[in-house]
Structure formats: C-alpha cells, structure tokens
Specification:
- By secondary structure, this protein is α/β, with parallel strands linked by helices.
- The protein has two domains: 12-177, CbiD-like (2-Layer Sandwich); 182-364, no CATH class.
- It has 14 helices and 18 strands.
- It has helices at 15-32, 121-134, 150-153, 159-162, 182-189, 191-198, 210-218, 233-241, 254-261, 275-285, 290-297, 303-311, 317-332, 355-364; strands spanning 12-13, 38-42, 48-52, 55-58, 63-68, 82-90, 94-98, 101-102, 104-105, 140-146, 164-165, 167-168, 176-177, 203-207, 226-228, 247-253, 338-344, 350-353.
- A five-stranded mixed β-sheet has the order 4-5-6-10-7.
- It holds the Pfam family CbiD.
Length: 371
Amino acid sequence: MDKVRTKELRSGYTTGSCAAAAAKAAARALVDGTLLTQVTITLPAGGQLTLPIARVEPGDGWCRAQVIKDAGDDPDVTHGLAIVAEVRPAAGGISILGGPGVGTVTKPGLAVPVGQPAINPVPRQMIEREVREVLPPGQGARVIISAPGGEKLAHQTMNPRLGIVGGISILGTGGIVRPMSEEAYRQSLVPQVDQALALGYRHLVLTPGRLGVNKARELGLPPDCIVETSNFIGTLLEECAKRPVEAVLLFGHLGKLVKVAAGIFHTLGRLADARRETLAAHAALQGAPREVIVQIMNMNTAEEVVGILQRYGLSNVWHQVAAAASRRAAQYVGDKYLVGTMMYSLSGEIVGYDAGARQIGGELGWHIALP
C-alpha cells in the first residue's frame, strides 16, 4: 500500500531578514559598486540565510536595494511586499530610520519607543550587523528602511490597535517565518496587554474579535484597555496573570463566551464546541422544562437560544452562564485577579452579565445602565 504523503510546508523569511539583506546589498553597492543578486545574512540564533535581491539602484552618494518578502506557505499579509533599504554614508555610527510604508510608534508599551519607526530591536541589530560587515572600518551610514504599499497593508495587521501609524512593522526574532505558526499569532496579540499596562490600566477588557472591540467602545469602555484575543482567550488570560493586572472583563458574543463557561479556552469551533450542552445544562439548573432542553440541544446556532429562553421566561440563564464563565476563567489563572463576564447577541443586546462585570465596567467608566 502506498503511503499517503503530506506536502511539506515551505518556510519564508521575516521583514527583518528582508531589511537586513536589502541594507547589506545597498551598502555593498555604495562601497565598491558591486550589484549583488543575492545576499547571505546571519540569523539571530546562528546559522545563515541567503535571500535574492530583486533590484539594486545606485545613486549620487546613495544606493538602494530591494528584497521581495517571501512568507513561504504562511498566510502573511506582507507576502510579496517590497522591502527597500537606502544607504548613505554618514559620520560616526549606523543610524536606522523608517521611510514610506514603515509605521511610527505613537503609544508606549512596545519594544520600540514612542516616536520611533516600528523597526523592532532584533531586526535593528540584524541591519546594523550586516551593514557594518560591508563598510570600511570607521565609516558610518544612514540606513532608511521603507515598504512601498505598507500603509494600506497595515490595516490588515494589529498595528492600528497598537498605535503604530503609517505602515507595517519590521519584525522577526528568528529571521525565518515558520508556516502556519499558531504560536506566532498568539504572541502577536500579547503586546496589547503590555501597552494597556504602560498607559496605566490595571483593569483590562478581553474580547474575541472586532465586533467586540467596536461594541466595547460604544459602551464607553476606554479603547486603550481593550485587548483583542481572537480564539486564544486562555493565552491572553495567562499573559495577564504574568503581569500586574488586577481585573479582566470578558466581553463578547455569547457564542464564544458560552464556551469559556464550559472551561474551553481555545474557542475555535472545530477544536471544541460544547455550546448546546452548556446552555442546556444551565437552563435545566434554572428549572427549564424538557421541551426547552430539547430545543436547545437541536439548535443550529447559539443565537437561537436567546429567543428560546425569552419565550419561556428564562433569560436569567444568561446571567448564570456569565457567572460560570468568570468562575472558570478565574480558576484557570489561579484566581490571580478579578474576572467578570458580559455577553451580547448579534443584535447588540446585552443578554448576560455578572457582579464582576458590573464592578469592572463601572470602574472603567462604561456608559450603560444595567437593571
């Protein structure tokens, strides 16, 4: 019998590696006029990586080089983007600046200070090392990293949420993009927590998606304390527990937060889904008749349960589910901080909340009158 072969996913390289390679190629052209077609750089953890150079453009007292970002088989929005480095001679050391398409940091709490281009520390070190390797001893350089089209692409990243304006970030701690890396996506969400803390917040709002972010803002919750979790609610709860967070409000659509009430902290549907069973159990605890339990167990979406419970005068079930979600989340992090939960339906109606939500939301100054 033939063995089934799975396709091996292809790795790519980070924007940081692209910037370092482009800077090295531009510096080489500036120093001796060599127009390289490929460049080998040293990776942060050791080893080397060879990248193709798409273009080298010599000028009067400057040189530019371009690398096309290749993310391999990773679904990276910057795949195919040109990363450009312009190098000019300068006195002293090597300065690294941001050009068009590279964002600027406007809020504290990130690895880059406010007012600086969003070129993270490891890529900066890579760029400086590669340029210094080419320059004659004692010569300095001014390196400008740009990413034409980065302004538009940035809207598909976390940058607007993090206060990085005007373009993408130059990132990468390892230099190589590992395809389909869930861990990398998880970690890209964590800086939101650090930024909220840097801005003085100790009470944070965790919400699974953009709908929750927008709804939380509508209720008057401060935008800078709202953290988008995607499906990784557990990861963000854990990260909050490692930091001086005092309270967390879980705020989101009922379909996601019902899962938390069941102790499910990675809420992707194909991994775990106990919404029917959880809602049916809580309805039964509130005295729901068998016909209600049957309807809940036969539902297509959790949204349908709003109407079912309403018809039978059992809307209080949502408050019990919210309280259960808070208990499970608090237990998950060893009761390191207060947890409250508030859930809404797709219509925007608040359907369930607990005492913790009242307390945290009130202290954050939300604009909502709860019965």
